[in-house]
Amino acid sequence: MSKLKVLVVGASIAGPSAVYWFAKAGASVTIIERFPKLRIGGQSIDIRTAGVTVMRQVPGMEAAVRAKTMQLEGMSWVRKDGRSYRTIRATGNPDQQSLVSEYEIFRDDLSRILFDLTKDNDNIKYVFGEQVTSMLQNEKENGPIEVEFANGLPTSEYDLVVACDGATSRTRAMGLGCGVREHVNPTNSWAAYFSLDRDLLKGGKVGQAISAIGLNRVTLMAMRLRKDRDATLPFREAMKQGDAALKQFVAQHYKGVGWKTDEALEGMMQARDFYASEVVQVKTPSLYQGRVVLVGDAGYAPGFTGTGTSLALAGAYVLAGEVGRHKDDLAAGLAGY
Question: Which neighbouring-strand residues pair with 18?
């Protein structure tokens, strides 16, 4: 793999994971991210099963994750008056976890850990504020892909393009020749994430949920029945208008819910790390086409299952491993993945 030239699109979780393993195998890797820097904010995520196994293969990663875990002891569901009616706690065994993981960490903290583990590698080049505008594959000759960029990175040929840019991946759309929302299965759900300037739990380490609230980070989730067709359309329309309109939409949706929701919404309007997204599943007929391959949510977003991070970590590991195992046959490596 030492001569392989790889382009990875997306620098959240799946992307830096992929560059780590490809670079370790000797490939030359460029990773681009459309945001000007690592994106802050996002939900609490957890590492489970195969994700734990892969994490332990990266020197220093488990210790770095443990140093940044949320120290969440459990999750308590409350009524409108704040009285708890159900609490789930961590098992204390990372190999047999409950709903509350021993590796509960905020998305931006894990992204920073992966970035720090890869940024000084001579085989890896990070480019922020960049995105792909076109890709040209010569499928008859099964040769490299010519990629054009939007913001100054020179047009170049790559042996492999790895799409790690999320459930509504533009790279997937270009590589598979489909629409951005094709292969996206709505769950009629959306979620908004943000931090508060004060701790509504007053130092408590058991998260409380009338709408998944923990520490001074807030997650607001809205779910509708699957039979309600396109129930997230108003949310997506608000997204198109920017964060201000989206905050107003979220605030209106949760107005008068009860408990500490109004305080959380008041803090949301001032939050600088506000982020919201539709929750979907992605089911593609294939994980690759030609020299374009999908990793993480771009290929298999799992919706509300709690497995997205572990799938991203494991997927990146397996992809690089299969490509490395079939050193002189990239097509066989992709088929193995």
Answer: none
Q: What is the pTM of this model?
A: 0.88
* Segment 53-92, tens digit of pLDDT: 999 999 999 999 999 987 777 777 777 777 788 787 877 7
Q: Which of 211, 217, 212, 275 is nearest to 246 (CA)?
A: 275
* DSSP-assigned beta bridge partners for residue 132: 149
Q: Would you state the structure tokens that stand for residue 66, as one six-digit string? A: 């443990």
Report the number of secondary-structure helices (H) and strands (E) in the chain: 11, 18
Indicate the SS3 state at residue 299: helix
How would residue 210 be classed by pLDDT, with cut points 50, 70 and 90?
low
Average pLDDT of span 207-221:
58
CA 120/CA 312 separation, integer angstroms: 22
- Judged by DSSP in three states, 271 sits in coil
Query: CA 285 → CA 95, 200, 279, 313, distances in Å?
Result: 32, 45, 20, 21
Going across the sheet that includes 132-137, the strands are: 132-137, 145-149, 156-158
Question: pLDDT value at position 215?
Answer: 42
Are the CB atoms for 274 and 268 separated by under 8 Å? yes
- Residue 213: what pLDDT? 38
Give yes or no for a contact between 148 and 7, defined as CB atoms under 8 angstroms apart: no
Q: Take residue 316 and report the two structure tokens written for it.
A: 């990146």
Report H helices in 29-106: 49-55, 61-68
Q: Which tens digit of pLDDT belongs to each residue from 276-299?
A: 999 999 999 999 999 999 999 999
Tokens of 312: 């991203």
Residue 293 pairs with which residues in a beta bridge? 162, 288
* Distance separating alpha carbons of residues 263 and 274, to the nearest angstrom: 15
